[in-house]
TrEMBL record, chain A:
One of its GO terms (biological process) is peptide biosynthetic process. Involved in peptide bond synthesis. Stimulates efficient translation and peptide-bond synthesis on native or reconstituted 70S ribosomes in vitro. Probably functions indirectly by altering the affinity of the ribosome for aminoacyl-tRNA, thus increasing their reactivity as acceptors for peptidyl transferase. One of its GO terms (cellular component) is cytosol. Residues 130-185 form the Elongation factor P C-terminal domain. It is found in: Cytoplasm. Belongs to the elongation factor P family. The lineage of its organism: Bacteria, Pseudomonadati, Pseudomonadota, Gammaproteobacteria, Cellvibrionales. One of its GO terms (molecular function) is translation elongation factor activity. This is Elongation factor P. InterPro entries: Elong-fact-P_C, NA-bd_OB-fold, Rib_uL2_dom2, Transl_elong_fac_P/YeiP, Transl_elong_KOW-like, Transl_elong_P/YeiP_cen, Transl_elongation_fac_P, Translation_prot_SH3-like_sf. Keywords: Cytoplasm, Elongation factor, Protein biosynthesis. Pfam families: EFP, EFP_N, Elong-fact-P_C. Pathway: Protein biosynthesis; polypeptide chain elongation. Residues 67-122 form the Translation elongation factor P/YeiP central domain.
Automatic annotation (TrEMBL), chain B:
The keyword Protein biosynthesis applies. It catalyses: dTDP-beta-L-rhamnose + L-arginyl-[protein] = N(omega)-(alpha-L-rhamnosyl)-L-arginyl-[protein] + dTDP + H(+). This is Protein-arginine rhamnosyltransferase. Belongs to the glycosyltransferase 104 family. Protein-arginine rhamnosyltransferase that catalyzes the transfer of a single rhamnose to elongation factor P (EF-P) on 'Lys-32', a modification required for EF-P-dependent rescue of polyproline stalled ribosomes. It holds the Pfam family EarP. The gene is earP.
Amino acid sequence: MKTAQEMKANSVALIDGHPWLIQKAEFTKSGRNSAIVKMKLKNLINGSKTETVYKADDKMEPVILDRKEVTLSYINGEDYVFMDPEYNSYELRAEDLESVLPFIEEGMSDICEAVFFDGKVISVDLPTTIVRQITYTENSARGDTSGKVMKPAKLRNGTEVKVADFCEIDDWIEIDTRDGSYKNRTQAPTA
Amino acid sequence: MMSKRWDIFCCVVDNYGDIGVTWRLARQLAAEHDQAVRLWVDEPAAFLRLCPTADASLSSQRIDGVEVCHWSQDFPQVEVADVVIEAFACNLPASYIEAMAVGERKPLWLNLEYLSAEAWVAGCHVLPSPQAGGLQKFFFFPGFTEGTGGLLRERDLLTRRRAFQAVPNARRDFLAQIGVTPADDARLISLFAYENAALADWLDALAVDTRPTLLLVPHGRIEGDLCRWLGVADTEPGSRWQRGNLQVQLLPFLSQHDYDRLLWSCDFNAVRGEDSFVRAQWAGRPLLWHIYQQEEGAHWDKLDAFLDLYCAGLSPQAADAQKSLWHAWNGQGDMGAAWVQAQAHIEEHSRYAGDWCDEQVLRPDLASALVRFSGKWLSCAT
């Protein structure tokens, strides 16, 4: 058993006998040092979706899932096609990728993990740290070099993230995919 | 709505907030909504402070239309209620959960959460939390905005408060009952807080203020800081001290009814936690909130969320003064300077406290919201 707080996005929990994919999990402190986890769930048997909330220390039964390394092959509208090293392709809808969708972009080379339940691909996990390029951000207004002052910036797929004030257009940055936070400025990834 | 059976579970963690809220809710459900309510309390001694007429040795007793039961380690086999409330995320007895699961008709299980003005609350209010055994649990959040469960407020509270505040004799007579005889020109301030290092700066400012102040302090955790500032070893209810233009008087621990009347009597109220915080808002007087401190400073988000909401209707200058004062009282800033700054806006703060109360009273109260939600759910479940 795991606590609700330990159950991350793209894991599956057995709730009252049914397997539910956790598409999104948001941890929040409620009051007097207690906390809650708001979850978006998808029933893997009938496809129904629901939003739920649990106490952070509620016990949940995790389902052990098969995983396989994949990379993004191409995007076709709402369809995202990934490929494993044996050239098997796995197609997912945008709605299946909810938690990682903001960081998926055409041409990305990240080694991802396809997640399987009952032999069927149900989602994809990104690495914890990814490198992305800033396509637009305002010029530094304050000349801050400490990295503490943040400003909004757009990535190639339109996702907006908060970055350090000294970052500029075309800079490459590292992002933590668990919470979408900026980590630091970095070099362009080598092909 | 037809009468339903309610079990409210309250685990007293510290202070009197949990039991204060659940006792208030239980009484209101019974008195105003004709519900059959059992209140399970794990610390009868804490309940005794709020309700001195109770007998802490009894495992069950009927008070104000509520069956108040001792929630002991060895939980008795009881019939499961129609609506079960775990207050403030307390853990229900395992045997009770088992009984809920095996019953032919599943009860509605609610986790009544803490009060917060944060934006995420409306997004979590009445969300399901499916449990094993086919049990349906929902999270119920009190709050200040549309899409939340509202605030605890008795049906006649504002009528009683306005009637009290409209009659000068009512205030004078009540204060005399609790041993307080203020000078005609004295500003009355009530003080209910946790231990607070900012107290000394505030009292220094009050002592040198041109306006005389009578500070009324019900028995509580702030007394240690008060003794240090006064330079006295200990305090007794009824004791008085004069320092410059500030007179301090200690009061005994007051019943909820008397504490309401104290809030209505004062020009300014310093309150803490959740229950007194809400009651001070219903008093329609300016207030100062000492928030319950949380790990990793999580309480600052809650404090600022409320301030943003509350101050939205104030002028920018009055809002800044209010925020500075509350921040200083909670440990960020100079309390003496913040108090002086706030006094420049006291008329606006006083007027606005009434407006805020009038705005909040337009929303459904928490007990009514719980009754409505449970009524709908139970009618669908049958």
